Amino acid sequence: MDNKSVKRLKQMHGSGNGANPGKLYFAFWGAFALLYIVGIALPLGVTPHYYNRMSRIWNWTEVLIFFLAVYYIIKTRVFQWRQAVIAVLLGAVCLISLFRDPRTADIIVTSICVTATFYAGCRLFELAKVENASININIVGSIRYFGLGAMISIPLAFLNALYFSFTGQIRLGNVLHSAVFALKPAIAEEVIFHFFLLAYTYFIFSGKEENKILAFLRKIWDVLKNIRYTIVRICDKIKDIVNNIQYYSNILKSDVFQRTWTLCSGQVLALLKSIRPRKFTGKLLIGLGDPARTGQALAIYGILYPMVGSHIEVTPDFGQRVLEWDFFVKGKITVFRFLKIAWALFFSRDLRRLLKLLKREAA
Predict the structure, then answer these.
(1) Mean pLDDT over residues 224-233, rounded?
(2) What CA–CA distance (Å, rounded) separates 120 from 200?
(3) Structural domain that includes position 121
């Protein structure tokens, strides 16, 4: 890069009268958004030479990018004849479509856009101090890369054409004739929407706005990553909960659990049966201070009398508030019963296996 380009780069990124590239960047993004809104809202009949809204928006976008390219060509003020010659040749190749496509004005506009954006893209790559392989590569390298691209693209293009021909959407004709006329949309897309915009992005990030823009983009990226990680963690938690429910549900349905449940419940019932009271008697003196409430308490006793009447004797006191009782319980608790239950549980293989399953120590 020559000294004039370096001085021009400083002026364009400096704090003088030059435009702020970061603001210009967002201004053109706003213009793109406005263009798309107008292109969708505007009736297609207003521009009858366009087949559909997509082609109209596509062409308008080319024009807007063209103005952006012209702006930077004027700002650099340094002419490079080699880049200019290649840009003119690419634009001239796009004019081949004039022999088949009736939209003459659109083709000429696209050709001019290709010429301007390619030249501006080359200049922006130099100003951003990024090596432009499309210009600096030698003849041998160009032939090698062309051959490699042809080896990859031609089979894919053949499969694409074969698919659309079988589905009846296109008819196969002269392949070379079609390939020549396909140069215009291919060159326009690659140069305008790929080559120039990539160079413009490199140029924007090479100036003073780099830190601000990158910091802003990093913040957005961090927020998106945090949202992603939060969603992933929540999904993992839900997955773990579902897996645990399924795991323990399978345990509850297993034969090991059923046998262990039968053993433990049988032992508990046997223990309760062995320690239940053999004899139970009692006397209860009750008075609630109100004859009506005391009568209600006796009514409850009357309901329970078939079950406890032979064991508990209730004496009411309708005159005062009193509660006295005297109970006698007789039974037996033997150590042998506890040892028997402990022996049965301790040497139960099913119980040990169930505990391992609950701790996930067994498969």
Answers:
(1) 86
(2) 9
(3) 3-207
